[in-house]
Amino acid sequence: MKDNERFSPNPIEAQPTSLFARAEKRIPGGVNSPVRAFRSVGGTPFFVRSAQGATLTTEDGRELIDFVCTWGPAIHGHNHPRIRAAIADALTRGTSFGAPHAGEVELAELITKFFPSIQKVRLCSSGTEATMSAIRLARGFTGRDRIIKFSGCYHGHSDSLLIKAGSGALTHGHPDSAGIPAAFARETLVLPYNDCSALDAVFTAEPDTIAAVIIEPYCGNVGFIIPDPGYLAHLRKLTAKHGTLLIFDEVMTGFRLAPGGVQELEAITPDLSCLGKIIGGGLPVGAFGGRSDIMDALAPSGPVYQAGTLSGNPLAVAAGIAALLLLEELNPYAQLDTLGRQLRDAALAAARAKGIPLQVPQCGSMFSLFFNAEPVRDYANALKSDAALYARLFHAALARGVYLAPSAYEAGFISTAHAGEAIDRACEQISAAIHEL
Ligand SMILES: *Cc1c(COP(=O)(O)O)cnc(C)c1O
């Protein structure tokens, strides 16, 4: 060790270095969440200086129309004045109490009002915590250990749920990440999404061992997939018959596709639901809730332990309440769907003109662009899309000032702030980018 390093554990470089080079040196992969590193599209991520409405401003001064929307939360666009004012107001009263406060009650009442299936709700700080806790609760409530998830559905990064691959209905899950004990993975059965007969086969073989089925009712984490009509109803019927809890993970879709999420759109009542993203208004919040008799199994009323130092954080709760009240006031869902269709139609027309097979599943403000000749119904299908072509589109769009998801397997998001000039310009630029492919 050189002398001058001894007193400086993080020596400042003599030469100015790019932010990403500095980040790579001190943060694994340079990022605090993997997809931000652009590995699946190549290149180096930009750094955001600020975000306003539909646009991000990068550290090198570029303005980008943003279709990532902080991966879902920013349904009102970035830095909305009403949400900012709510946070500023809460800030005058303190940043964390570690004790009950009125805001928690108000947010719980708002959530239960829009999600009739949620009779009681517990707040936490991320979607990962919400799904992890819902699974523990389902196991504690039913006294069963095994759960079912579907390939391509992402439910955060807890051990039981970070398992994607599985071949055949009864194949035991394989860990999707290093560090997950095989014994844990064995308790998670992975089935293909959108496949009634795979479900039937499992429940015939295992009629009374499954604690819960967790599903993204519309899948947004392998691109965007809307299941076939009747699939969710079939799942509801089977789980009810077998005493298995049905958990809708609506962290992404809750308040985004309808105030009451996919369960409102499809008129299905799950036993438990998980929320996050929009309900935090851009600050860290998650929630899980459902039937009172199940929720009452949680500590302190029941034996299933779950807790959080920052759960119900007053700033995050204030931001969430402001975001939900704004949704109630504006009821922007028809408008968002119009924006979604405009983008879908523009992309499809450009691809048709160019002779490139493209699928654009879209519902309201969620969409994705699959370079695929077939409509995408599941994970296996999604993986057959041309990801290299998507990477080229991503960079062509970025060069034209439009930020699409930096992966072929992520959904795109639209906000109310995209209405007007931003969506028109984005459609033009995305069409031009497709034309350049
Ligand atoms: C984002 C997401 C999660 C995880 O939420 P985090 O806040 O990132 O932990 C869980 N489920 C779904 C469906 C999601 O989209």
TrEMBL record:
PROSITE patterns, sorted: AA_TRANSFER_CLASS_3
Keyword hit for Acetylation: no
Annotated localization: Cytoplasm
Residues bearing the modification N6-(pyridoxal phosphate)lysine: K277
Protein name: Glutamate-1-semialdehyde 2,1-aminomutase
Cofactor: pyridoxal 5'-phosphate
Entry-linked PANTHER family: GLUTAMATE-1-SEMIALDEHYDE 2,1-AMINOMUTASE, GLUTAMATE-1-SEMIALDEHYDE 2,1-AMINOMUTASE 1, CHLOROPLASTIC-RELATED
Superkingdom classification of source: Bacteria
Pathway note: Porphyrin-containing compound metabolism; protoporphyrin-IX biosynthesis; 5-aminolevulinate from L-glutamyl-tRNA(Glu): step 2/2
Coiled-coil stretches: none
MF (Gene Ontology): glutamate-1-semialdehyde 2,1-aminomutase activity; pyridoxal phosphate binding; transaminase activity
Catalytic activity: (S)-4-amino-5-oxopentanoate = 5-aminolevulinate
GO cellular component: cytoplasm
Pfam families: Aminotran_3
Keywords, comma-separated and alphabetical: Aminotransferase, Cytoplasm, Isomerase, Porphyrin biosynthesis, Pyridoxal phosphate, Transferase
Family: Belongs to the class-III pyridoxal-phosphate-dependent aminotransferase family. HemL subfamily.
Enzymatic class: isomerase
Name of the coding gene: hemL
HAMAP family to which the protein is assigned, alphabetical: HemL_aminotrans_3 (MF_00375)
Subunit structure of this chain's protein: Homodimer.
InterPro entries: 4pyrrol_synth_GluAld_NH2Trfase, Aminotrans_3, Aminotrans_3_PPA_site, PyrdxlP-dep_Trfase, PyrdxlP-dep_Trfase_major, PyrdxlP-dep_Trfase_small
EC code: 5.4.3.8
GO biological process, one term: protoporphyrinogen IX biosynthetic process
